[in-house]
Design brief:
2 domains, mainly alpha, 6 helices
């Protein structure tokens, strides 16, 4: 019985942490501190996001630019039947090159073969 109670508390705390992390206020702070753009549209209006500029891009108003582009996306991208398998093949190819186990051409050929084998 104690194990179930502990599991419930841990699950609740995990849910609370997820809600806190994805709250617009926290996402605006993360953007200000680390540049991670918020996934919550409500955060786009926070001054930490809306007023953000980037010196590298001649002080471009990136907060406004990113918000305009993010709200212009009509829906989540389509993920076809083999999306995850293709994604894994590409990620594995990049990892092989990054890790030095394959050169670019060899790794790409392996990825293409894996993807073609999907049907």
């Amino acid at each position: 019985m104690a194990d179930r109670s502990l599991e419930r508390r841990q699950r609740r705390r995990g849910q609370e942490a997820a809600l806190w992390l994805t709250a617009p206020e926290q996402q605006a702070k993360a953007f200000a501190n680390a540049g991670t753009y918020p996934s919550q549209p409500a955060a786009y209006e926070d001054p930490a996001v809306a007023d953000a500029t980037n010196a590298f891009f001649n002080d471009a108003p990136i907060g406004t630019l990113f918000a305009d582009r993010a709200t212009a996306v009509p829906a989540a991208p389509y993920k076809g039947q083999f999306y995850f398998q293709v994604n894994t093949a590409i990620q594995d190819a990049l990892t092989r090159v990054d890790g030095g186990t394959d050169d670019v051409a060899t790794s790409w050929d392996k990825a293409v073969s894996e993807i073609e084998a999907l049907g």
